[in-house]
């Protein structure tokens, strides 16, 4: 009974991630047009919390299945990779949500319509972004540290995924050697 529940929970988590991404894009579109996005921010925060809870439930189900030996080690590793992918996606969505409108397409469009068309050649004369406007040096440094910490967390997750795949590859190689 746990497997169908796990599958539906995994599918629901994937759908929630997709919905979050769509809401963030919609919010960024509103911000570009100068419209209020407060309502969407509340919805996105709620969806992010819901997404995190689904990931935690999947982790609990996986832990129970592995500890009670309901699944093989290989299946446990495969499912752990899926959970790790969801965790990475959650971190990306969280970072994207916090950036509030600094999606790559926004940055790209501001670059394309920026300095050259207005004849501004001195980079010091360009307008400061909304994200950093009004922040002091300490605030900017703290924001930069937070961004670096988020990137480090993403790299740690990626590192664990890669090391698990390496281990799986070695186990497959050992199994092939035994079979041969």
UniProtKB/TrEMBL annotation:
Keyword Coiled coil applies = yes
PROSITE patterns tied to this protein: T_SNARE (PS50192)
Keyword field contains Coiled coil: yes
| T-SNARE coiled-coil homology domain location | 145-180
Which InterPro entries does the record cross-reference, listed alphabetically?
T_SNARE_dom
- Keywords, in A-Z order: Coiled coil
Q: What is the name of the protein in this document?
A: STX8 protein
Q: Which gene encodes it?
A: Stx8
